[in-house]
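Tokens as discussed.
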């Protein structure tokens, strides 16, 4: 019995130690958010554009010249985005309080209209569940982080360039530095290919989504349509609820500017675009995907969003996949990786 108690105490102590290490690590990451967020975004951009660099190298373009070409493309894209969205961001930020008041008036008018047609609506309940201030604070936070990222653009650009310079030698460095077995190196390479494929497809579908949203809003004549198209592009990387969040400000502006009927058309347009891209195009291109359960995808969205803000939500799936692969490569934590996996992945095993 004494031996059993010691084993139990040892297991409990190990569990508590793991929990303490996790809390300390998360607290450190939260404290270093200002440094980690630009680095993670740089890593994300580097992973997205690296297949193009490797393709250029494959067709005999020197590595330095390939990186120079990619750098010019990134600079042009950054300048284009800043010029198209920079003034719109400032204009929208200045008009936020006025838009909030106008939206509240529209909601009050709608409630009064329903009451006049003998449809009883509890105004206090509507204000509780449709919190205009909370919605506008979320939009304001997203915009402020976009603005700060534009300000850090040069630092992010330099970090991307240096990551690309190290991209070809990184697998060999990991192999010798960590003493990885050939099987582990193969798993890391497979994971890297999966993430690059996932992000590549997501980038293409996000561009398609943003283009369709821009056409929809231009047709409607909705203000700040370039800003909402950029928001649709960014939040398309966020699984499950990203497209829903991206639709809210555009529908709200459409309601204030053009009225109820136009806002309904805008909402229906968003639904059609997101169903088409999310349920038809993406599954056909991605196939089985990266093997994460739906619940884990949602919980990772909440966790990384709390830890790193909107950028954490954008990167929630790749970051969770990194954690899953790390857990799979250790016998003591492999059972935890199974909880992160999808049902299809368990059946295949």
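Sequence:
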């Amino acid at each position: 019995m004494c031996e059993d108690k010691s084993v139990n105490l040892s297991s409990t102590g190990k569990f508590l130690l793991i929990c303490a290490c996790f809390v300390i690590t998360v607290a450190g990451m939260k404290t270093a958010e200002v440094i980690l967020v630009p680095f993670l975004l740089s890593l994300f951009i580097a992973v997205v554009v690296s297949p193009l660099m490797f393709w250029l190298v494959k067709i005999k373009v020197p590595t330095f010249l390939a990186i120079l070409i990619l750098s010019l493309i990134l600079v042009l894209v950054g300048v284009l985005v800043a010029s198209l969205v920079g003034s719109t961001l400032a204009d929208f930020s200045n008009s936020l309080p006025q838009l909030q008041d106008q939206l509240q008036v529209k909601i009050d008018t709608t409630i009064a209209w329903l009451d006049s047609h003998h449809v009883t609506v509890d105004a206090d309940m509507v204000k509780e569940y449709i919190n205009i201030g909370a919605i506008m604070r979320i939009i304001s936070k997203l915009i402020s982080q976009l603005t700060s990222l534009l300000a850090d653009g040069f630092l992010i650009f330099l970090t991307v360039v240096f990551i690309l310079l190290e991209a070809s030698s990184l697998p060999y460095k990991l192999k010798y530095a960590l003493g990885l077995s050939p099987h582990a190196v193969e798993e890391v390479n497979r994971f890297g290919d999966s993430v690059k494929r996932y992000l590549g497809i997501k980038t293409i579908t996000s561009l398609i989504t943003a283009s369709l949203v821009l056409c929809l809003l231009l047709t409607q004549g909705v203000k700040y349509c370039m800003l909402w198209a950029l928001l649709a592009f960014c939040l398309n990387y966020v699984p499950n609820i990203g497209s829903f969040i991206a639709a809210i400000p555009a529908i709200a502006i459409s309601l204030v500017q053009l009225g109820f009927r136009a806002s309904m058309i805008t909402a229906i347009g968003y639904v059609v675009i997101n169903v088409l891209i999310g349920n038809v195009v993406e599954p056909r291109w991605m196939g089985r995907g990266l093997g994460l359960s739906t619940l884990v995808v949602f919980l990772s969205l909440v966790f990384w969003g709390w830890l790193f803000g909107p950028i954490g939500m954008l990167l929630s799936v790749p970051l969770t996949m990194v954690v899953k692969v790390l857990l799979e490569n250790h016998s003591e934590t492999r059972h935890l990786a199974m909880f992160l996996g999808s049902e299809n992945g368990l059946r295949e095993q």
